[in-house]
Amino acid sequence: MPVALVIGASRGIGLELVRQYRADGWRVLACARSASGLEHVQGLGAEPIALDVTDSAAISRLKTTLSHIALDVAIINAGVLVGRGDSFAPSQADFDLAMHTNVLAAMQLVPEIEPGLRKAKGVLAMMSSRMGSIAEMSSPSELLYRVSKAALNAVAKAAALRLAGDGVRVLALHPGWVKTDMGGKGAALEVGESVHGLRNVIHNATDEQSGLMFDYRGTPIAW
Ligand SMILES: NC(=O)c1ccc[n+]([C@@H]2O[C@H](COP(=O)([O-])OP(=O)(O)OC[C@H]3O[C@@H](n4cnc5c(N)ncnc54)[C@H](OP(=O)(O)O)[C@@H]3O)[C@@H](O)[C@H]2O)c1
After folding, report:
1. For residue range 68-87, what is the model confidence (pLDDT) as tens digits?
2. Residue 132 CB less than 6 A away from ligand 1
3. Nearest protein Cα to ligand 1, atom 26
4. How crowded is residue 45: how many other Cβ atoms within 10 Å of its Cβ?
5. Dihedral pair phi/psi, residue 156, rounded to 5°
6. In the chain, what are the domain boundaries?
7. Do β-strands 212-215 and 220-221 pair in parallel, antiparallel, or remain unpaired?
8. Given the CA of residue 101, which atom of ligand 1 is nearest to it?
9. What is the CATH number of domain 3-221?
10. Which residues lie below 8 Å from residue 43, measured CB to CB, with a gap of 6+?
11. Sheet with 27-32: strands ordered across
12. Number of neighbours of residue 61 by Cβ within 10 angstroms
């Protein structure tokens, strides 16, 4: 039975990833920080792992929790959108929260989950955003979020280089503009459609694609 690890699985895109992988018969390990999130994933038949990605000590225990498990897919999905607007002066608190959740956590997670990915020659996906593309930036809106996702893209590229010799492919992914708490009710896409596409892109990931960014339809996005 193939195995997927979803980090940030309590709701939105993460919870739908859990739902779809479980519906396809996968074993799913699902990380969430809240009791309700852990209940949600357990209700879908996933194995719950309590994890706040801003808790470095908890991240450093993951390697032990996951030892001996070959990971076909690992998805770092947890993310926050804070300090909204085009402010060039975000509060220190907003900056720290965005950069810790969206960037530092991914950096700290890679060494914890790479042994499992190596075992399966799996795929590591980092949930980025088109808004993290400097090439496609057409507005300074949500600047702190853009900056954090641009930095996450660098983490994805670095992880691809680090894991290239081990047969592990690493993708930065843009899910589209999705109807979740973050995307809002007016978003373009249902979460099911986005996740269906994301899973296809992950499933078909090639060595040549490793270290690059794609949207949920598999269309490349320039850095
Ligand atoms: N929706 C969109 O249109 C869109 C577009 C581009 C990119 N994205 C990216 O896609 C990912 C998922 O977004 P979404 O739309 O599903 O957002 P969402 O509905 O706001 O859900 C965010 C998820 O991240 C988790 N999370 C946040 N901070 C965490 C922490 N410290 N520890 C553990 N989990 C944490 C949340 O858990 P809690 O329930 O505990 O808060 C929740 O499961 C994000 O990385 C986002 O940036 C979304």
Report:
1. 999 999 999 999 999 888 78
2. no
3. 78
4. 16
5. -65, -45
6. 3-221
7. antiparallel
8. 31
9. 3.40.50.720
10. none
11. 47-50, 27-32, 3-7, 73-76, 123-127, 169-174, 212-215, 220-221
12. 13
The rounded distance, in Å, linking the Cα atoms of 132 and 115 is 28
Nearest atom (ligand 1) to Cα of 11? 43
Q: Confirm if 145 and 129 have CB atoms less than 8 A apart.
A: yes
Could you tell me the distance, in angstroms and rounded to a whole number, from the CA of residue 165 to the centre of ligand 1? 31
Q: Given the structure tokens 């908890």, which residue do they identify? A: 58
- Residue from 34, 75, 77 whose mutation best tests the ligand 1 pocket (most atoms within 8 A of CB): 77
Which tens digits make up the pLDDT trace of 167-213? 999 999 999 999 999 999 999 999 999 999 999 999 999 999 999 99
Taking the CA of residue 37 as reference, the ligand 1 atom at the shortest distance is: 39
Q: Ligand 1 in contact with 211 (CB < 6 A)?
A: no
Which pair of tokens denotes residue 4?
């997927």
* Token reading at 83: 């300090």
